[in-house]
Write a structure and sequence with these properties.
141 residues; 5 helices; mainly alpha
Length: 141
Amino acid sequence: MLLTRYGVTPLLMLSPLIVATGFAWLAASPTPLLLASIQVVHRAGNFALIAPARESLFTRVDRESRYKAKAFIDTAIYRGGDLVNGWIMAGIVAAKMPLGDVAIIGLVVACVWALLGWRVGRTHDEHLADTGAKAAPASVS
């Protein structure tokens, strides 16, 4: 319902903006409970907001391209991101960086994520406007 009402762009931006707010709060008051809360909100946002918006981005491509792209994104991009994140976290632990400083890094990353979500969403919306098509929610496959 949110996708059809507001479009792709706000859904791609909402979760990272909420996470950025959480990281700003965490930088001001670094507590493990707040960090856990941010992780819960992040995961819920991924499933409730970003996944449907991301799936709708694939509605404009043919079936073969969709499955090739989704397989590449789900394996190389997400798993590669997990690997890089693990290395970064190992570096942060080795550097004994305080939680507040880690939160500032997370804030910057979340802001870049929101900016990228805005750009992808705007590009998608412009493409739909050029073709005269309406955004339709994609079924998860």
